[in-house]
Write a structure and sequence with these properties.
The chain has 174 residues and is an all-alpha fold. The protein folds into two domains: 90 residues, RNA polymerase sigma factor, region 2, helix turn helix motif (Rna Polymerase Sigma Factor, Chain: A, Orthogonal Bundle); 75 residues, Arc Repressor Mutant, subunit A (Orthogonal Bundle). Helices cover 75% and strands 0% of the residues. The longest helix has 27 residues.
């Protein structure tokens, strides 16, 4: 039986069967780590597939082949965490209540209707960060964590979204 280090060296050398052996050897621990994070066996199966794909692509960066097991489990936890954040963002966006006017009767005033229409016309990635930031009242840091994006990326997306909103609302002025 070959060690993980030997299999990594062979896989990096171009033998796909060596990587297949590594996958079979560590599949249970990768899926277990993903289930622990996601709490869902189907989603964990998807996370495991993404994990092994990422591991295969980055296998040449692994300095100590004998550390393949802990390394691939760490990748699995990160992938599963990213998937969990994306699922929460999607669920949050799908469950957003319609903003209502002060009367609370479910009707939007003209300004709120225009603003909501403008927000909904934003590209999906910008709409998501604007809604999380302003409708949910989350900080930029929390939005970044939930979406799995760097803080700088979220800040830039918000900036671009604000510019689009200003321009759209300006264009709609009578």
């Amino acid at each position: 039986m070959q060690s993980d280090a030997e299999l990594v060296t062979t896989a990096v050398g171009g033998d796909p069967e060596a990587f297949a052996v590594l996958m079979r050897r560590h599949e249970r621990s990768v899926r277990a780590a993903a289930v622990e994070v996601l709490g869902d066996h189907e989603a964990a199966r998807d996370a495991a597939q993404e994990t092994f794909l990422a591991a295969y692509r980055k296998l040449g960066e692994l300095r100590n082949g004998s550390a393949f097991g802990p390394w691939v489990v760490k990748i699995a936890r990160r992938r599963a965490g990213r998937m969990a954040r994306q699922r929460r963002v999607t669920a949050s966006l799908e469950s957003q209540p319609d903003p209502v006017d002060a009367r609370g009767d479910g009707h939007l005033d003209g300004t709120s209707r225009r603003l909501l229409s403008a927000v909904m016309s934003l590209p999906r990635h910008e709409r998501a960060v604007v809604m999380l930031r302003h409708f949910d009242g989350l900080s930029v840091q929390v939005v970044a964590e939930m979406t799995g994006r760097p803080v700088g990326t979220v800040t830039k997306q918000l900036s671009r979204a604000y510019a689009r909103l200003r321009q759209r609302l300006k264009d709609e002025e009578p």
